[in-house]
Design goal:
Chain lengths: 416, 416
């Protein structure tokens, strides 16, 4: 008899029929004797609709009222899920964030979890009640003036809600039901030989999530890693139940039996490349380039500096999120006199390809295999960046599929 | 400087643009120096959509989870209204039912107001903040197990929320913004000469609301009458501001300067007529007929008993809501042996026409004028029922417009 947190994403609760299907999975786990907390996202599309309402009233909105509006989507599905469970003779009831309470900081729109009171949930278990909790929602601590304000945890925050509840309950498993049946060695739409990964280390998942894999919110992976929450990613449309363990497990690196050199590949098209030519090669120049970008809240990722044609100055190349390209060029142009560069070149025809694996810590030559394989296919590497367990390269976007398939084979990831 | 409660119905907040228009009216009142509480309904159509979701999951739903789902519509508009006001440089914030708190009984789906804490709202006024409150929502008192549950006050309950808040604040006026510019002497779509009424007594409005006028929820009128809340019904699409007093005022009968015999006409097509023929004319028979209907929660309205053709038995005719016709015939058929009637006749080709006016108390002959006028047009009266300030007749539905226009003229209601 285990304690389980089952989280259903937006496509899993997209309409009343899907909610009823999801409720059957919950019921099956309860019939196996497990104690279950259900966490639900909003119906797919609803949060976008609510955000559109807010933005059409004012682009510079008060985030505390934004939270009041957008948190309502999860309130709806939590009530509907409780009803669907009751219809299957499961004693269920919903608890909104303010009812648990699920305390967060007051940084509206991107609140961080402060403290979760698990007493109500444990009382539910004692009474045979299955609690249903809306994901994404929190509440600030009550003050003299009012009883706390509704907060939200950022887009995709329901994953984080589920993992946090699992940590607070010391749950045996946190199943994240989504529309794919696990984490893959690469995107199966681009790489036909991609395989589902059975076990992945938290740190690998963290790299993949931040490098472009959209299956889990990055913060939920961090939280799972910090509290050692056993998370399973699995498909809501697969007839297999969570307890059949059909999905991908996030586990501690230490308990991974065999450490492959590379566990998976990620790619991100959300990149733009900026090059400043003929920058004076003197101390402090990089700080002067990136200071204004940091002030503008632009996240600079890969950076490379190379000698210019004239041999006296340098060219500085870096990547930024594609959506920040206007803000970036504005900030750099405004500081052109101070920076003294010759030309500002931008390109969006780029893709970032990453290989991730905790095995890199103990295997040398992972990067060399990558550079050689790509060179043999005539793919030019524009920028490289590395961490302890990943290597990323920026290449021409038109080579995306070729690069992924080549690397997938080279690192022995192809399905048998 | 007055305290005002401004309530905007579903068509007044149907989309972000309408919410911005409504916010301008609020801002204009504030610019006049008034202290304002805003109450909002859900966007028109949203509550029906949410109710459909609930019903498609289970027709026999748990009303406490129903309330969680349907109360979300007002949460959305309360946040959006606060944002629209902020956009106009009004310091505004939303307070959900549980944040005020707005305590109600725990009779979910049809909760009654228990107690409203006006302290938060008065504190807002002191700080120059305009509070926005979702209508329709309440919350039960917190218990040891949880922090209270969300309730709703029944369809149309936002009117009741607004009047209750006005009563709690001892507001100078409660403006109900809707899609018509007041209460009319009759339905303007049927009676071209219908006039807007400037002042109507609470009791008259109560009769009109329960007799088929859908402008205000009956409970809101009761509450206004009990707490002497000055309510104005006005159009959100009329450029006139509430403080210009363009609408219809609900007032105490005592302060109505001249009491007309008849203030207005109502009609309801939501009626069905049932006749049981040849019922034995003995004591207790009516109780035996209506007992099973009361048990089935069917609201019997007009009742008449007349001698049958055979001179020994009676025919009993009565009206019920049209939607209850199946339940009613089932209940009567099941008890046929006990009741011993000959035939059960049903008709839905009927309409109830009512004339309402507090002046009836001091004028004799109001009914006689009605009966004579209808007879002259060849309209047969099937059933009559009266109260101190209204007379209702059931007639053939095809005469609806003719009867309304005739009575409108006879009682001197026609526009000049």
């Amino acid at each position: 008899m285990a304690v389980l947190v089952l989280k259903f994403g937006g496509t899993s609760v997209a309409n009343p029929e899907r909610i009823q299907q999801a409720a059957k999975k919950v019921k099956a786990e309860i019939d196996l004797g497990h104690k279950v907390v259900v966490v639900v996202s909003a119906m797919s599309g609803v949060t976008n609709q609510l955000v559109d309402y807010v933005r059409s009233i004012t682009p510079s909105y008060d985030p505390s009222e934004y939270d009041v509006v957008v948190a309502s989507g999860e309130q709806v599905t939590s009530g509907l899920m409780a009803l669907a469970l009751q219809q299957l003779d499961v004693k269920a009831r919903s608890y909104q964030g303010w009812q648990l309470p699920f305390y967060s900081t007051d940084k509206h729109e991107k609140a961080r979890i402060d403290e979760i009171d698990a007493n109500v949930l444990n009382d539910c278990f004692a009474q045979g009640i299955t609690p249903v909790v809306p994901g994404f929602q929190g509440v600030t601590r009550p003050t003299k003036e009012d009883r706390g304000r509704i907060t939200t945890l950022g887009r995709g925050g329901s994953d984080t809600s589920a993992v946090a509840l699992a940590a607070a309950l010391k749950a045996d498993r946190c199943d994240i039901y989504t529309d794919v049946n696990g984490i893959y060695t690469s995107d199966p739409r681009l790489v036909q030989k991609a395989r589902k990964i059975n076990r992945i280390a938290y740190e690998e998942m963290l790299e993949l999530a931040s490098l472009g894999s959209k299956v889990l919110q990055t913060r939920s992976v961090e939280l799972a890693m910090n509290y050692k929450v056993p998370v399973q990613v699995l498909s809501t449309f697969d007839p297999a139940l969570g307890s059949d363990l059909p999905g991908t497990f996030l586990v501690d690196e230490d308990i991974m039996m065999e450490k492959q050199m590379v566990t998976g590949l990620a790619h991100s098209r959300d990149e733009a490349r900026i090059t400043l030519t003929n920058v004076a090669d003197k101390p402090g120049m990089l700080a002067r380039i990136f200071g204004p970008l940091a002030d503008a809240n632009i996240n600079v990722d890969m950076i490379v500096q190379a000698a210019s044609d004239d041999g006296k100055t340098v060219d500085v190349t870096f990547t930024i999120p594609r959506s920040d390209i206007v803000k970036t060029t504005e900030a750099l142009t405004a500081n052109k006199a101070d920076l003294g560069y010759n030309e500002l070149q931008t390109s969006t025809d780029v893709v970032k390809i990453s290989v991730v694996g905790v095995g890199m810590r103990s295997h040398a030559g992972v990067g060399q295999m990558m550079f050689k394989a790509l060179a043999e296919k005539g793919i030019n590497i524009q920028v490289v960046s590395t961490s302890e367990i990943k290597i990323s390269v920026l290449i021409d976007e038109s080579y995306t599929e070729l690069a992924l398939r080549t690397l997938h084979t080279v690192y022995g990831l192809d399905a048998a």
